[in-house]
Amino acid sequence: MTIVRLSLVLAALSLPIPLTAARYFVSPCGSSTGDGSRGNPWDLQSALSQPSIVRPGDTIWLLAGTYGDGSGSTIFESNLTGTDRRPIVVRQFPGGRATINGGLRIYGAYTWYWGFEITSSITDRTGQIDGTSALKNGIDCFGPGTRLINLVIHDTRQGIGMWSEAVDSEIYGNLIFNNGFQAPDRGHGHGIYVQNKDGLKLLADNIIFNQFGIGISAYSSQAGWVRGLELDGNVVFNSGVISTDSNRDDNILFASGSGVDRIVLDQNLTYHTPNARTGYSRIGWEYDTVNGSAAIRGNYWIGGQIAVMLNRWKSLTFENNVTYSVGGLNALVDYPLGEAAQPYQWNGNSYFGTGWFSNASHTRTFPDWVGESGFDHNSTFTPGTPKGVWTFVRPNYYEPQRATITIYNWDQSPSVAVDLSSFLDPGTAYQIRDVQDFDGAPVATGRYDGNPVNIPVLARPVAPPNGSVPVAPRHTAPEFAVFVVLPR
What we know:
CATH topology of the domain at 399-487: Immunoglobulin-like
Oligomer: single chain
Radius of gyration: 22 Å
Largest sheet: 19 strands, mixed
Strand content: 35-45%
Low-confidence stretches: 1-14
């Protein structure tokens, strides 16, 4: 089946138009004495420290090259401050590759960071239980109204940290992989670590895989908050796979000592290699904390010891989801103590694999689950492996000729025909890149003629982590593959 969807949430948002008042340029060879012109550019830190010069609506272009002192630990701090309707844009200049070798801390508000790369040349992938490591975080964001758009973040201590101070911020379309380090207890370092208290944070259309730790970690202790978060159309797979013993972690985790509340998960696609029979996604984890409300619709929870765990919600909608587990549970749900699941809306789901479910700490078959829980009267269970090919096309909201293609290739076909008409016009030159080897040669190129494009779905080299990791990642094809379509 082929499903083409564009986030209804994003479509409903009013997109601020950066009415550019000025254009400035940054270069690895720039200086603090420059004037920000193409011929006399700033260095990056000078550009990010110019809130009195760079005004709302301005654009800072990052020229090609590597930014940092070469150690892999340079942290650039941004105090740039735009407005809601006229954000400042910091963006990679077209046709070049701009790379920060270190990390970025964001304190200013209403600034968009778009299209460049963040990584670290540090090869030591070890650290301590308390989180100490030679590596630095790719991004730590404290700025309200920040948007992180179509960045490539890899081989850092942690991909993105988006904290409660960053009210009404957005993480969109980023490619995040190979982040984290090995400590004596486990793999540390997540693709995205997010907390929120007020307003809404949106995480949409990100591609996150092969971390040491969790893919998306929405987590806090009792002193923090995990509230008002929306996840839409993210692809998250094989989290934890490069840590010791390939110890799979959560693809998506929501947990807070103060209780999780006001969350929406819509059309997210997850994958743990099913035959590995390890890993999970936990949407509500703490057994001693009652969570508020969650709406979980149209997601794919594929693989793992537990495909999806949902614990202790006062109000829960779980509809039109798909789960598959080879040897574990299709779903685990635990109600708040002393409460039935009366506020729950749980129906229209499709289950594959074992058909084992758990509620109230008891494991049940699918018929018993339906009869005793009152859930899933209009859902289906199919034993064993799914059949066919499931294809998902997600056009990119910010770059019209860009899209993400995700393929669950249960028939293990060597190629899959994909309709690109939702975002490409006939005559458009395109390239298709495998996200697991993003810098390698495209898997397909051409000029779009309006017909479906055949995409090879074959195992190929995987981008190796920087430094030595306990377990080298392996390609998930032909069973599962993710591609990005770009203009050529």
